[in-house]
Amino acid sequence: MTPYVPPIRDMEFVLNELADLNAIAALPGYEQATPDLVSAVLDESGKLAAEVLAPLNQVGDRAGSHLDKGIVRTSEGWKDAYRVFTEGGWNGLALDERYGGQGLPWLVATAVQEMWHAANMSFALCPMLTQAAVEVILKHGSDQQKETYVRKLTAGTWTGTMNLTEPQAGSDLGAVRAKAVPEGDHYLISGQKIFISYGDHDLTENIVHLVLARTPDAPAGVKGISMFIVPKYLVHDDGSVGEPNDVRTVSLEHKLGIHASPTAVLAYGDNGGAVGYLMGEENHGLEYMFTMMNLARLVVGVEGLAIAERAYQQAREYARERVQGRPPGTRAGDRVTIIEHPDVRRMLMTMKAQVEAMRAVAYVATAAFDKTLRQPDAGERRKQHELLDLLTPVVKGWCTELGVEIASTGVQVHGGMGYIEETGASQHLRDARITTIYEGTTGIQANDLVGRKIVRDQGQGAKRLIETMQSFAAELDGKQDDVIEAIRTALVEGIDAMSRATDWILAAHARDPRLPAAASVPYLRLFGTVVGGWQMARAALVARHKLDAGAGDSRFYQAKLTTARFYAEHIMPQARALLHAILQGSEATLALDTDQF
Length: 597
Description:
This protein is of the alpha+beta class and 597 residues long. Among the domains are: 125 residues, Butyryl-CoA Dehydrogenase, subunit A, domain 2; 138 residues. The chain is 58% helix and 11% strand. The strands form three sheets. Strands 3, 4, 5, 6, 7, 10, 11 and 12 form an eight-stranded mixed β-sheet that branches. β4 and β5 form a beta hairpin. The longest helix has 37 residues. The two termini are 42 Å apart. The mean pLDDT is 96.
């Protein structure tokens, strides 16, 4: 497997020029995010990713985690890597300073997390889940729960999990059956939970499970779900770990990828009931879950970006080294490396352009998240909430779908060697496949975008975003630059397609709500493609200004400009095809009777 090289130069470009890190650092509480500090954080986290985590990626894929007499054993090197990770304070990078975190912007943490997931997604899943647990306890837990759990979770001494679904439920959490019976100051939890990432492991002294369950008098469906804190080991009043709770690892799933990440089936209450503590109020569990889910969806989108970056790097380096054939039109002379072949260049350019667009959209979305937390002006906070609400399902759905496609293209660049496990290219494809399913499938993200974010407010938020993109496109008009004009033309056409698709969604919903649901995934894909094109156009304009001023690394900015043009000419035309599928294809999607499939 090709060594991982953190793409810090491009990360810094996106952080500073597109996500506007300076504006984030000006928000109350984020003042410590100075350019020097952020640069140091990126450099050090890059070393951790490249030197500690990446070398374990293929090792973990081959060995996996395993269940040994009821105890989950992680892969060789995992414990040492986790110790280095926590001793460096990385677990609490963006977490609350009051509980031992460093309080840096989530924007900075997103760039760092991209490196960790690119280096070793199986490893990075563990701290990702812990940070989600911290956020939900801080927002919805009692003061005592915060004091008991958050500091240990922030330090990484303990880890956190999300226990949501069950065998009969899948994504329909209204079908959850786990029971929570009140007993004094706690509840007794019983039932089975599946697909619990890092549900058990040997990295820390305790694991804090956040579990959805029903109290005896709870109403049916999602309105009757409550959330409980259920530690693997009970916690004494002084914070020390006590006796085991009544929770057992039944088995570990055998998966397509991320083999080193233990995905557990957990049984609660085999011996009378696991001790659990209600978080917040009864029957508000779904609301609390979305505190975890929304943050997790952004990070899973970054996983798609990260795997795509890693697959691109591996394909690029292989193409630079693999000698095969002669260029078209040449019958004599030395054979060349395959990067000289036009179709290999097409594949690499497609990978590169989409990775850069994904990074820009993901970072801009996270910047909006930071502003929802720290922006003092209420009106500006509402604007950022609106943008974040629109972009969250797009980052999750669009970036992960592209992650799978780009990893698949990486295998294709390798040819037959890509299908051989030794090269590592196929691992990226296998690992990427889960990201389109995690935290809600692409269809769920698309239905969220269409149903909750477009139809619910009659498309007002989407229309405001479209107006913002139109205003930017107007700024590009008359630049008397062939490259910028080509990018502008593609952007204008893409925005028009997005606008027409949005209008159709609203009109079709009034006729038959099934129609926009049938078109939701093409609409999400169109949305991501166009917003990605907008960010690439912004990047191109910055690059043009830098080149004109003779500032900075001219080769970097020329590549940025060329890549943006490639995106405009090769990727943005997909918006028109997606528009046609939305406008014309939804009725055909629904036309067959179920017995005709």
